[in-house]
Amino acid sequence: MAHDASPEDDRARPPASAARSRRTDAGIPLPVVSVRRLMLRFFLTGLAGLVILAAATAFASRRVGTDRAASEAQRIAYITASGIVQHEVTPALMRGDPAALQRVDEVIRRDVLRGSLVRTKIWAADGRIVYSDEARLIGERFTLDDDAQRVMAGGEAHAEISDLSKPENRFERPGDRLLEVYAPLSSPSGTPLLFEVYFSYGDVTAAGRSLWLAFAPVVLGALLLLQLLQLPSAWSMARRLRRGQDERELLLQHAIQSSDAERRRIAGDLHDGSVQDLVGVSFALSAALRRSGAPGGPPIDPKVVETAAEHVRGVITALRSLLVEIYPPNLEEEGLGSALADMVAGLSSRGITPHVDVTVPAGELRPHTTGLIYRTAQELVRNTLRHSGASGISIHVASVGDRVRLTVEDDGRGFDPRTIHRAQAEGHVGLRGLGDLVAEAGGTLEVESAPGKGTMVTVEVPK
């Protein structure tokens, strides 16, 4: 018995041009898996994710940094108000005494106006500016907003972006952005006052940028490293996907070729076997009928009828075997032994003596195992017919502990088992496909053969 991996039986892998076209011989279009395209998609997706995460991290970091800078500005305003300015608030200052204003201005310019702090104001409860480093505002009155009044009444320091369109800010440069901070003060008589300072908002946002820049190398470096570490895995997965597609394409191609070959075989069997036998029976009966119908002709010879009946029975047996191959039987109803006997019943007409021996009790095998044993035996018998030139074939099914063993042995021409591995390496799928099917069920398949000494295939699978 030969094997499916023989060069005469299988076709090699389709040429490169066919693989690029991704169409089967039947014209079925197949999707193309491009490793480069998959890697490019993975890289662009990762890059987009990296940009989005970087932007989100930058926004969050700058937001946190800005909030922290604003909180720090409130703290500075509160400390400056209570630690420096409060000591300079005197009755003379409240009256607008020039000497008192001069002394406060010197302290403010020496100890307060530095870094990002660019403007100060001291407000009375009636909206009068008691002091400002912008002297033109001293003595003017403006309406205090709700936040300013709340802080003056003893609330916590408050910070907000300054509205430079307000009248009290008319001396500021229109293009500047300032952060104004309120802190509470009190006069010597206990009257609430308001201390207002202005910070350059650019310095405040710079704190947010500095926080982002501090985290950026770590965050972006980690994200980039993660992307780079994933590239080999993505490349490997893309290659496996491509190989899987190639294997599926090859299996589909083989299935189509096998289906075509099977149809041709069935048509050939019918034409060369059953049809010819029936034609012979028809000619024999017609000739006998013509002889008996002629004047003085002899009666129909019973041997002719018997021979015709024997041929018809042979045709029925062959057709039954062919039907079994086309549509396998219900193994649960008929049993494995009966199904195997029906499968090989037509071999006698081809000069092969079959022998079937099934010693496994009915119901001992799972339906899946029974079907696997039947399909495996069927494929091995087909190989015998195609390649072996055998005159006899034996099928044995027996229990071996918790496993079932199928042995298919013929007395054909045999072959060198090394040709199996060479054919498989070249892409042929014959016995390899059968071995994969058995391996998936947790079983093993072994082939023993030599030129001129027949072939024996042993399959063991769990019950």
Strand content: 15-25%
For the biggest sheet, the summary is:
5 strands, antiparallel
Poorly predicted ranges (pLDDT <50, ≥5 residues)? 1-21, 425-429
Instruction: Output the CATH homologous superfamily of the largest domain.
Output: PAS domain
Instruction: Enumerate the strands of the largest sheet in spatial order, edge to edge or round the barrel.
Output: 2-1-5-4-3
Structure summary, number of beta strands: 10
Residue-averaged pLDDT:
80
Estimate the global geometry from the Cα principal axes.
rod-shaped
User: What is the correct CATH architecture of the largest domain?
Assistant: 2-Layer Sandwich
CATH class of the largest domain: Alpha Beta
What is the CATH topology classification name of the largest domain? Beta-Lactamase
End-to-end CA span: 26 Å
Summarize the structure.
By secondary structure, the protein is of the alpha+beta class. It is built from 12 helices and 10 strands.
